[in-house]
Specification:
By secondary structure, the chain is of the alpha+beta class. It has one domain: Gcn5-related N-acetyltransferase (GNAT) (Aminopeptidase, 3-Layer(aba) Sandwich), CATH 3.40.630. Helices cover about 25% and strands about 30% of the residues. It has 4 helices and 8 strands; from the N terminus they run E-E-H-H-E-E-E-H-E-H-E-E. It has an 8-stranded mixed sheet with strand order 1-2-3-4-5-6-8-7, sandwiched between helices. The chain starts with 11 loop residues before the first strand and ends in a 19-residue tail after the last strand.
Length: about 200
């Protein structure tokens, strides 16, 4: 089942990053990275054309209370985001009926790629979800062409769960993989509802 999430008062710290709720004062930083061709597309959405579009999405982030801004400590700049979103097919995936979980989605400014920053951010959120909120599992998906996101999942301990065709916010369909991470502090046993699950041996 999808756990209840509200990041309104959540502030998380890692060596190089601060993860906190979005603020309207983040608009310029948000537009700066979200307007770059190829950034949003890696996550399934078209890069922003103007600040009005960014403001609309930023307002959504603030209202839905499940998106964290990624702030780079060195310059106090917002360089990306992590969403702790609801996973789909909640009423069908019986393996999760007795457990509480969520799905992660993330994006990072192109200027900060290949520095291990997203892995650092995701690990920080995993620690919060497992150790502070006591969630049982976390899902995370990536498109097959997004090798960077695949590496983040691998470095954070996620294992392939299902091969899927994702429908993106761009209206396209992309082949990809949904990965799964279970809380290592708990004894969790899944009975997978799909015979095609990559975890069935």
């Amino acid at each position: 089942m999808n756990a209840k999430i509200d990041v309104t008062n959540v502030i998380l710290y890692s060596d190089r990053l601060i993860l906190r709720p979005w603020q309207y004062s983040d608009l310029d930083d948000f537009f700066e990275y979200a307007s770059v061709d190829g950034v949003g597309e890696m996550a399934g959405w078209v890069h922003h054309k103007n600040k009005k579009e960014s403001l609309h999405i930023l307002t959504h982030f603030i209202k839905n209370k499940r998106e964290l801004a990624i702030v780079y400590k060195e310059n106090n700049k917002v360089i990306g985001s992590i969403g702790i979103k609801k996973y789909g097919l909640e009423d069908r995936l019986s393996e999760f009926f007795a457990y509480q979980g969520r799905e992660l989605g993330y994006v990072l400014s192109k200027d900060y790629w290949n520095q291990g920053l997203m892995t650092e951010a995701v690990k920080t959120v995993i620690d919060y979800l497992f150790n502070d909120l006591n969630l049982d599992f976390i899902l995370c998906g990536y498109f097959n062409y997004n090798l960077q996101s695949k590496r983040v999942c691998e470095k954070c301990g996620f294992v392939p769960y299902r091969s899927l065709v994702f429908t993106t916010n761009m209206g396209t369909k992309e082949e990809g993989v949904l990965t799964l991470l279970s809380n290592p502090n708990k004894d969790i046993t899944y009975r997978f509802s799909y015979k095609s699950s990559l975890l069935i041996k």
